Amino acid sequence: MKSYKFTDYTYLEIKGFIEDGYLAILPTGCTEQQGPHLPVGFDTWFAETVAIAAVQHNRGRALVLPAMPFGPTPEHRGFGSGYVNIPHPVHEEFIYFVLESLAEQGFSTIVVWRGCGEHRLQRTVDKFNAKFQDRCTACVPALPYRDIWLRVADPTVPCGHADSFATSIALYKFPEIVRVDKIPPPNAGQVDWNDPHLDFSKYSETGVIGDATKASAELGSRLWNEVVTTSAAIIRNAAVNCAPNG
Predict the structure, then answer these.
(1) Euclidean distance between CA atoms 100 and 214, whole angstroms
(2) In what order do the strands lie in the sheet with 137-139?
(3) Closest CA to 192 of 206, 203, 205, 207
């Protein structure tokens, strides 16, 4: 198989993959500030790239859709630029219709791979599964990235957003996008992640939550390998446990 990207194939080729029982993976990304040192498209790039790498690791029978580049991101509006904010109800409805389109084509299992922890899609997946339970099942796994940071890196280094986790992976995989001279010193306060009106600009002058100064390409290599291995295992389990009657 030359590619795991849904968009690289013709509709007849996709039909053949569906008949062969291929899994569909839907990454959800977002466009938002990532501090002064990372581009606003990082989360979208990361979600799709991780999904593809995980499927390659599994040598799996799966197609990865292009990551939707926009999602709910109201917590970033305080920085004044670099965001596209889609309200939660609109985002959830959009994702629902993507899932419905995939089910109508004949996919029996779909994994929603989130690029942001603020993508609240369980209700959308539950609504979809209630309608298509006999034909297709979707699931939305928990994100493994914080646990990976605690296992692989220094757990005393605070993480949160545009931190040393994201910056290290960018330095390893895509170093030309990192404005190394713009990596700021840590200055964020303690974030209340349960605040329904979360505004990052109240906690950080730079947009970084945590500490980005401990990033390195070497750390990024170790983090990336663990991200791919862990994500591949999650997708393998989802392919079994999320399948109809699985």
Answers:
(1) 43
(2) 62-64, 23-28, 109-114, 137-139
(3) 203
